Amino acid sequence: MKEEITRIEGSDGPTAVFIAGRNNGTITIRQRIQRFINRTRRKHIENYIKAEPHTINQVCEYIVEKLGYVELSKEDPKYQEDYQEMRASFLIQYEPELLGSLAHIGDLTEQTEEAINYYLSQLKLQQEAAKKVPVEFFDIDLHIYTKENGDNESHIIVEKTRNYIGGGASGNTKMVRRHNREFKKVYRYYGVSDEDIQNKSERFEEVVRMLALPMR
């Protein structure tokens, strides 16, 4: 059985999630139970998390030296492809004014097929426009780390400028579960400071949220 999981996470990271559905806001019993479990897990982490912060550069070293990942060369076609997509996503989030009329495309207000298709087409135009903005105006410091085992692959992405950490995995269930464990280890190592804990900073919220994610 092959599974695939992709995260777009990270403190101040670019997150674009689009979900179209018609459930009228109904929450099932199972969803209510899972939400309760997630809140309980999060509260436990908030109460017991300790100040053991590390820099984003130290996190990159940890990914290689402790978890056994290999950094992908910036000349690799896979890196180039991901770099283009990630740079565009960061630009849309942090400097959308560079896109002119495509800076803001509004929200999806209707759940009709026509409205959804139009909204998706606007997202695509926005992404393509972002890719065309010269790096002299906007750039990112992207690092991609991979671990492969046959057809199974796990990767962790770090953007150093904005302390972004993301990643994903594809392959069998064992690989996906291992990736989930390792991804949490990365966030646990990244950690928080006493100041983060006291002020409930964005870094604190992000680390707690990631550590509270259920294991698959």
Entry summary:
With 216 residues, the protein is α+β, with helices and mostly antiparallel strands.
Quickly give the structural class. Answer: alpha+beta
**Gyration radius over CA:** 19 Å
Question: What is the CA-CA span between the terminal residues?
Answer: 14 Å
Q: How many strands, which pairing sense, and closed or not: the largest β-sheet?
A: 5 strands, antiparallel
Chain-averaged pLDDT: 86
Question: Given the structure, what is the number of helices?
Answer: 7
> For the largest beta sheet, what order do the strands appear in spatially?
1-5-4-3-2
Report the count of strand segments: 5
Estimate the helix proportion, in percent: 40-55%
In what range is the share of β-strand residues?
15-25%
**Low-pLDDT segments:** 1-23
Give the helices and strands as they follow along the chain. Answer: EHHEHHEEEHHH
**What general outline do the C-alpha atoms trace?**
globular
Task: Describe the model.
The chain starts with a strand and ends in a 5-residue tail after the last helix. The protein has helices at 29-48, 56-65, 77-94, 113-132, 173-190, 194-199, 202-211; strands at residues 2-7, 70-71, 142-149, 152-159, 164-172. By secondary structure, it is an alpha+beta fold. The chain contains seven helices and five strands; from the N terminus they run E-H-H-E-H-H-E-E-E-H-H-H. Residues 1-23 have low confidence and may be disordered.
